[in-house]
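Appendix B: complex inputs.
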Amino acid sequence: MVSHKANATRKRMNFIVMHKNAQIIFVDTPGIHHKERLLNKFMLEEAMKAIGDCDLVLFLASVKDDITEYKEFLKLNKKNRPHIVLLTKMDLISKDKLLKKLQEYHLYQNVFLELVPISIKKGTKQSVLLDIILKYLPNHPYLYDPEILTTENLKEIYKEYIREALFDNLSDEIPYLSDVVVDKVEESIEIEKIYAKIITEKSSQKGIIIGKNGSSIKRIGMQARQNIEKLCQKKVFLKLEVAVKQGWSKDKKLLTDIGYRVKS
Ligand SMILES: Nc1nc2c(ncn2[C@@H]2O[C@H](COP(=O)(O)OP(=O)(O)O)[C@@H](O)[C@H]2O)c(=O)[nH]1
Ligand SMILES: [Mg+2]
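Resulting structure:
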């Protein structure tokens, strides 16, 4: 899931990349933030679990971020997991400013393995980045069939496409107050039928998600459907409903139902 709004990722997700005979399992995580809601605590736990489990951490720091976020990560990285700092979005600032940023992070050169400025919008080649990552991964037999792209199930993937459409099409707070549950997927050769529910806190929010004469939910559904069709390479039927579940983001049972199993 990609979004220009921050904090959209809520759960760890595994994506597998084969590179030069190596199998790299990327674990995408929520960012590291401390917030009160139980959902946000779950998100922080997810990031911490990923750091605990992996061979290598990629810490993505935007050139626009303050270095205090990196310091916060170092504090949380108690077991000193080896990490690379990727200084992202370098296209957004001048060379001078980039140099200054690099110098700030350089104070920690004994702590990180490498500091790599990158830009997905301009220039950085994936293979260069993958080569750097490979240097630090242990030798191990493949964990998964080399054909597999993800360990996530279809419902999880479709959920993320629908959430992405929520973040893209709704302004302000609504995407943060909402989530998605995929109830049912019916697969056939010609068509993928997906039945999903958008969960939100209040009936006023439900009204906004649906929009005038259903215009908003139609746009959300269309975007999600088109992206899922690209993935599946076949026709998709997507049925979206909206349900009000007050307090879902603070309630352990409701969070579990939505797919976020909170430990504490
Ligand atoms: N200008 C610029 N934008 C980027 C770059 N990489 C990512 N973005 C944008 O940053 C936003 C956040 O990306 P996302 O992958 O959702 O980041 P996350 O919040 O850390 O998961 C999206 O709008 C991306 O298009 C980059 O190298 N340059
Ligand atoms: Mg993300």
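Residues 154-258 form a domain with the GMP Synthetase; Chain A, domain 3 fold (CATH 3.30.300.20).
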